[in-house]
Amino acid sequence: MKDALLATLIDEYSTVEAFASILTIESKVLASASALEELPSIVEKKTELIGVLARLEAARDAQLAELGLPAGWPGMELAADSDARIAAQWSLLQKAVERARRANTNNGELIRVRMDYNQRALAALQVHAPRKANNFYGPDGRIPAHSGV
After folding, report:
1. Looking at residue 16, what is its pLDDT?
2. Is 149 contained in some domain?
3. In UniProt terms, what function does this protein have (predicted)?
4. What is the residue range of 61's domain?
């Protein structure tokens, strides 16, 4: 049973590393001008990996229960205390999760900065001119006809 737990940890580690790689790509895209075109496929891949991680975590918790250990962190700590291979893989997984967490936090900040920039750009385009003298392009890309000006 410990071999199955070890295999699950290895799969979790690989999936977290794949997720971190997607976050790195996302970071580069967020810093580029082409974010709108590339982000949907990145979000789709992240969503897929999150599903895989949830299934692996459930499998790990079931394996811990079969070993008579509690689910989650407490059970993994106990399993790691009694098996050096599990301890080594658990440590690798924790480090990978921390790297992914930092990358995700960084991407969240990039998104916030980009949203702030877009808000300021939009505000600059929405000039507060009198309504009668509105010579700016409308939503259809045309200058509105002046009636009675």
Report:
1. 97
2. no
3. Required for the efficient initiation of filament assembly.
4. 2-126
Is residue 149's pLDDT more than 80? no
CATH code for position 115: 1.20.58.300
Note whether residue 132 is domain-resident: no
The verdict on residue 88 lying in a domain is yes
Better-predicted residue by pLDDT, 123 or 141 = 123
Q: Is residue 145 part of a domain?
A: no
Of all residues in the chain, what percent carry a pLDDT higher than 90?
A: 66
Task: Map tokens 């079931």 to a residue.
Answer: 62
